[in-house]
Amino acid sequence: MEEELRKKAVQRHLDGEGPKSVYTDLERSKEWFFKWLKRYQTGDKDWYKDRSKAPHNSPTRISDIDRQRIIETRRRLESERFSQISASAIKWELNKSDFSFPSDRAINRVLNQEGLVKKKILHS
Q1: DSSP H helices in the chain
Q2: How far apart are CA 107 and CA 103, in angstroms?
Q3: What's the pLDDT at 10?
Q4: DSSP 64
């Protein structure tokens, strides 16, 4: 429905109708009309379709390989007696192997997603 309205608005303008007349009659805003007119003018065959608003990249996203390294390092540290298992300890171990990560937060995010964070139980 909305896509057809966009096509109709642009076609009416191409047929010689003024912009204000078109967007007023269709009960749309001036910004709406000119957004779709501008998209039409790009020459894209799918100009009238909605575009994803998702970011094109995720700079904080960790690769599957790095994710696996974090998990393996955590499990190895857990199996060693008296070793630390915090995000800082994992980062330290990874850095010793020439792998670096941007932050403890990134490591904690992976650990949380994998269910590897253990809550402390306080005894009263």
Answers
A1: 2-14, 19-25, 30-41, 64-79, 87-96, 104-113
A2: 7
A3: 96
A4: H
